[in-house]
TrEMBL record:
Negative regulator of class I heat shock genes (grpE-dnaK-dnaJ and groELS operons). Prevents heat-shock induction of these operons. It holds the Pfam family HrcA. NCBIfam families: hrcA. It comes from the Bacteria. This is Heat-inducible transcription repressor HrcA. The keyword Metal-binding does not apply. It comes from Roseobacter ponti.
Amino acid sequence: MNDKADILGEMNDRSREVFRRVVEGYLADGAPVGSRTLTRDFSEKVSAATIRNVMQDLEYLGLLDSPHISAGRIPTQQGLRMFVDGLLEIGDPDDHDREQIDATMGSNSEDVSGLLDRVGSALSGVTRGASLVMTPKREAPIRHIEFVSLSPDRSLVVLVFADGHVENRLFTPPPGQTPSSMREAANFLNALIEGRTLSELQGVIAAQISTRRQEIDSLARALVESGLAVWEGEGDQIERLIVRGRANLLSGGGEEEDLEKIRQLFDDLERKRDIAEFLELAEEGEGVRIFIGSENKLFSLSGSSLVVSPYMNSDRKIIGAVGVIGPTRLNYGRIVPIVNYTAQLVGKLISDRK
């Protein structure tokens, strides 16, 4: 089958209008759209039989589907993707939506965590979906690193940042560590810090370990590598996700099977399964991205959609993201401008605090 752009380009005006109206009708109320409904306000005078033939052709192309025994059609995931990519018209958020977002984030508080928590609540409230907010990575330079042994199989790496923030992270050290190996490991790291951030330090450490294996004791080297794994793994990301609005999805009606899928989605979110994949999505480029159903592993089971946009600091570096989760029949034309506007506003507010 041709790709989506080719299919859309090869459609005649009648097929394109039938397809667009079926998708828009489905997104509006979640119900299948029948041929008789379309004939009432179609741009040209055509019979219901003609419309049915067009809908059958669109179903053959994999763009529409017939749910259960209904005479109407709904868009498939492929159809929704083609609509979003080729026919969706995106404008600016309306004045009411913009005012709600502005009012929520109008505080002069210096607490960025509080700001982002309010962002999540505002997004879920305005969109009536669930919101995800990825908080900024801590990019302040590190002043000092220390290892603390808590038990034979548990250690703590203490990170002291130049801005005064202190972070403690638990990890499993290599067996047989000694006080001297822990001191050697800390000395090795502190000699490399020189005002570097965590992300900058990781690459330097990896290179140094590979070239100085003879100079650093094997046990100390293993301790450094164990602690480094903590910085690179999920521990650096678990605390960076704020989820708000679970009740919005659960209270939206629908069959019990659909509600169970949504509950499973939030169980996965709360256990932070596959969150790293979500967090990486927004860091791959600028602009709003839309993931429909199985296009994102995290939401494939529930059949949900994710609209997400990164936000940037004053240096135009992506430091986080905001997004909205909802059913695949989201009002994309309304949600996309809201997410985009919110991301731009958050980036500006965070940049202005520096």
